[in-house]
Design goal:
The protein has 313 residues and is of the alpha+beta class. The protein has helices spanning 3-6, 9-22, 57-67, 71-78, 81-92, 109-117, 121-132, 137-157, 163-182, 188-205, 213-243, 247-252, 295-307, and strands at residues 255-262, 265-274, 277-288, 291-294. The chain is globular, with a radius of gyration of 19 Å.
Amino acid sequence: MPLRDALPPTLRRHAAFVLVLVALLAGLAGCRQSSAPAAPDGVQEAGAPVPAARPVDAVYVLRDRLLARDGVGFARVAVPPALHAELRRTWRDGRSRWPLDELPLDARIPGMLAALQAPGAEARLMATFRKQFAGADADIDQAVRTLVVFGTEYVQRDPGYSADERDHAAQAIAALGRWAIAAPLDDPARAQRFFTALSAAAVRSGIDGKAGWPAFAALGMTQSLNRLSPFFATLLAQLRQQYGLDLDASLRSLHVSLVEQTGDRARLRLQYTLADTPIDTLTTAVRIDGRWYLADYVQDAQRSLAAAPPPGR
């Protein structure tokens, strides 16, 4: 049963608002468009980032791409070159949307863009906000608490998560829940600035949200990530400016240490601070063709290819 349908009906509208604010805080949320034009699919740019040479750097190279606001580079160093090339091909065929499917609510990205790009979107969003959310701090707080419980249970049951991902997600959900309860999510002035910025960023992306996923396939992975990245960068900036959630500070606080290494596999310990909450978790890195990658990203990318239907079906 979908998480939304599991919520009590009176909490669904507040839960939806909170989800819009917090569910996209992973993966590409730290990326923006590079100032240089991206190379066509299948062409390697000069000076492009390279995957990690040491186990701990499998995390640090991804962190650095996020802080550099380089979504295309993030996708490149997250998986081996051959797998990355195959993902780009299946993206063009409309059969894959990795790495976007690393994001919660990834299926809603085109609809979210379409809603924000529609004429008068900002006014409609604010009218809905004032009707349902303004001054509803107690209701929003209850929705947050409910989402923390249901979200944690959902992650624990979902077979798509590894044990390490479940542990990490549970800690992150709890931290974001505490942040959301303390944040002024019911403030109309902050919401106005938030929606104004996001609506403008959605329009600037140039991606036709109404066209759905075929618009992303037509652009290809590289151009899609380059066009989406400024939107996610705006989301991050507004979460920091309006609601005090500084994910760049979380990335800068990251410390990675090697727990053990056996051949081409290594266990890593990740420690950082998220919304004033210490996070301490483990992950696995794997060595492929002499370079190190996070095992969960590689497996997720491989699963996305396996799940993609063949062309013509």
